[in-house]
Amino acid sequence: MAPPTGPRGGSNNRKPTARASRGGVAKHRAATRTDRDGDVSMGAPISGSNPPTGPSGRGTRGRGAARGAPARGSRTSSRLAQNLKNYIGEGGSKPAKTTLKILGVKNSKAASNSDGGVKGLLQFIERKADKDKKIVLGRGVLDGDYVWVKANKDDVSSIMHLNGYQYAGAPITIEETTEPFPTGTKFSKDAADTRQKLLALLAKRYNAEQKLLDLSALGTDDILGNLGAVGSQSLAEKSFRAIIHVAGEQFKTAEEKRQGIQSVSLARNEISDVDQVFTLAYSLPHLRRLDLSNNRLATFSSIAKWKQEFRYLEELYLVGNPVTGAADYAVQITQWFPCLQILDGNIVRSPQEAAEALKAMTPQPLAQLPSNLRDGENNVASIFLRSFFQLYDHDRPALAAQFYDAESVASLSATPEPGRDVEWKPYMKYSRNIQKLGGSRNPAVVQRLFTGASLIAEMWKSLPATRHATLDQPELWIIDCHTFPHLADPSGHGFAMGLMINVHGQFEEADTTEELYGTRTFSRSFILGPSKPGAPHPYRVLSDQLTIHKWTPRAAGAASVPVTTVAPAAPIAPVAPVVAAVPVIDDATRVQLIQELARRTGMNAQYSELCLSGTANWNFDLALQSFEEQRANLPPAAFTAPA
């Protein structure tokens, strides 16, 4: 993306990217070897363009995929927490810790990273310290010239062997110390200076009267130019995230921030995809006016990641972007933002229509439907999946906080391909393949069932970064859902209805630790149930089971690898209208229906019965319609052999 620009009277602009830089390393021996850890990825330079324009002031409890119920015992939870933090062990005492000081990162090429090179340095030490043993360091703190970190006492001898090694082009020195570990939020002199300059930029660009944050044409901003923050696409995107973060810190509460920033201009920033500035959607979700004029947004897909974000957006400006030339431009954009009333200065929806559109997109409590029906009229599954995969790709802690609680259960299963152990390494320490582990008596089966939002979020944190396709690409997804009865009602009164959702798809994967990039297929099963009072949503995830499948390396410049789908074994009926009750059909009538469907379709008796007894619920017309829709996917065995 290029630098952003602002509303009337604009200013400067720029953009963000969600990829972390790595650091270079080399062993200090006869000849120095250096890898890429810590190097800053440089992209095309960002340039400003036209003057800015902007908007006019306006429980389960359970095993695997089980049903809701009370939380598990404290002994299991504490063991899970310990295993998750230490990656090993079946109980026992916590390893003794010691403090290490590491000198040298300030002189490395990684010092220009957003975190000062700390993350890359710690990953380097964990990889290089001991080839035969997993080394896990605590969270590092950059204080002055040193990186401070906690380590297991037993690992110190292995770590000290790295004294004199080169990290990102600079030698490092490691020492054990008894000095007190730095506490509180500290900034190096350079970091504090950068922060003050960003505050000066925000002070210049924030209009309190209009509640406008003008981030237009950031690539031409003198402050960012002097900081060297817009010299490449990668730096520009990191700088944008830093600006948004610092801006948010100036408000004590989320409500103050919501009231304080109601308009943002990102005009004239050469933005080609909103993914470059995606952090805006989560930092300011209640934005009312947004200016994206005079950028490089050429297609709907370049904006699609913000679909169903900014649900309270009332004004949007996209003039000066190639996408505005599309025939159905206004209709498509209006559908994506339910409260949108003004697009490029034109009225597209009345306030009353906006209120109705917002209500239609708001998740509703799960309908009390018979178990043979699917999603009903509330569109719960579609809304949930869109939110889930966007948050999983961009903000996993927020995802866990929104849809999981203390009774949520999650597990992961993976079966590595022969000869590809490295590609599967991040998943194997959590894999709960019961058949491979040897049955439910193996302690690992219990330890790898994660209960509670905090443990689930911790497990997710160590998995590789992902990017899922949007649900607007149906050829890349297989999704099925039906109601799931007899869940424990969180209010304590009887039973409640839930939803089971089964998803098969693919995602792009970036394992920055091993520098592996590819595409992976997956299956995921959810059970949703009613939330407890006061929860962020009317429903929660009771069970989440993720199965990891084939990994394919991504060739340079290659397009995404398409998912190979498997045809269902029997026809699946379309979503049926809500009915008052499940019909009662005697055995003789069932036989007649099976025979008639077999005669009309040519299917054998077994598949005819499967088609009728599934979600069609012995409705002959629905079963026949399902057959016509799924005929091409049925295997030869489904049909009667010719005489």
Automatic annotation (TrEMBL):
Domain NTF2 residue range list: 380-548
For this UniProt record, give its keywords in alphabetical order, as a comma-separated list: Leucine-rich repeat, mRNA transport, Nucleus, Repeat, Transport
Family affiliation: Belongs to the NXF family.
Give the UniProt subcellular location, in the record's own words: Nucleus
- Renumbered to this chain, the Low complexity biased-composition regions fall at 66-79
Pfam families on file: LRR_NXF1-5, NXF_NTF2, TAP_C
* InterPro entries, sorted: Leu-rich_rpt (IPR001611), LRR_dom_sf (IPR032675), NTF2-like_dom_sf (IPR032710), NTF2_dom (IPR002075), Nuclear_transport_factor_2_euk (IPR018222), NXF1/2/3/5-like_LRR (IPR057125), NXF_fam (IPR030217), TAP_C_dom (IPR005637)
Q: TAP-C domain: which residues?
A: 588-642
- Ranges for the region named Disordered are 1-80
Look up and give the organism this protein is from.
Podospora comata
Q: What is this protein called?
A: mRNA export factor mex67
